[in-house]
């Protein structure tokens, strides 16, 4: 099965600090998603990205969040000033194309202290 | 509005017993339905999917699921559970626009 790779696997950061979560999607996939899962809760959609721009975002994805594909391969999620409630597992996902199943990375566990 | 309900938060079964995990959805059109499995500390792995056609779909690891439009359900089944099946299972529907909607998950414990 194709793999989506996320780094780091676990990051601990102090409240107010900026974090960047990285994802290497499957090479020929064009859509990229970020999801998060707060411990014990459901997997929630954050944002989708296509053709180098955000195509859809949820109410969770406020001005503290941003995404980009800086070098044509990596796909990053930046949280500008982390809050305690940002502590969660963050998943990158890419479908092969629109309206197909998404392949998820193994996730980055973000802990804000 | 689109939503997915997994009524069972936690299920415990004995190894070798059969398993059924329930999933009900609310969706405005013909849904695309998925089951994902998440082992501890791991990402989400696709078990199976339904897009169209035969309503009984086969997946990996011996799992199957049946789409029942009249009941808005997509229950996951396995005839004989193995200890390695212990994990969190998520039902999902979509995508709508660009996003998938996930249920809250069912945690499966397998006892010897």
Query: How would the global form of chain B be characterised?
Result: globular
Instruction: Kindly estimate the percentage of residues of chain B that lie in beta strands according to DSSP.
Output: over 45%
Q: Calculate the terminal CA-CA distance of chain B, rounded to whole Å.
A: 41 Å
Mean pLDDT of chain B: 91
- Percentage of residues assigned to helices of chain A: under 10%
Major pleated sheet of chain B: 6 strands, mixed
Radius of gyration of chain A: 13 Å
Structural class of chain A: mainly beta
Please state the average pLDDT score of chain A: 89
Number of helices of chain A: 0
Order of helices and strands of chain A: EEEEEEEEEEE
- Main beta sheet strand tally, sense and closure of chain A: 7 strands, mixed
Beta-strand fraction estimate of chain A: over 45%
Number of strands of chain A: 11
Give the distance, in angstroms, between the N- and C-terminal Cα atoms of chain A: 36 Å
Low confidence ranges of chain A:
none
Strand pairing plus helix content of chain B: what structural class?
A: mainly beta
Count the helices of chain B. How many? Answer: 0
The most extensive contact between chains is: A-B, 28 and 21 residues
